[in-house]
Amino acid sequence: MSQVTSIGLYVIFGVVLLPLYVMLGGWFLDDPRQLRSPLIGLGYVVGFVVAIVIGIWILGFLLSFVLGY
């Protein structure tokens, strides 16, 4: 892995996603502890990320088909 890629991963997972980490921590560490709403919110976040990853995978597959890679 190149040095630029590893720095980019630290920036993405450490800085860009920091608001997401704070939001999830606030959901699960809040008083009173009710897990239904945070689990629904976490389900939406995970579903959104999965949809993005699958969409990018399909787009990459189609582009490799069209461009002949």
Q: What multimeric state do the chains show?
A: single chain
Q: Tell me the strand percentage band.
A: under 5%
Structural class: mainly alpha
Q: Roughly what percent helix? A: over 70%
Taking the alpha carbons of the first and last residues, their distance comes to 22 Å
Query: So what's the overall shape?
Result: elongated
- SSE topology string: HHH
Instruction: Tally the beta strands.
Output: 0
So how many helices?
Answer: 3
Explain how this protein is built.
With 69 residues, this protein is an all-alpha fold. It has two domains: 1-32; 34-69. It contains three helices and no strands. It starts with a helix and ends with a helix.
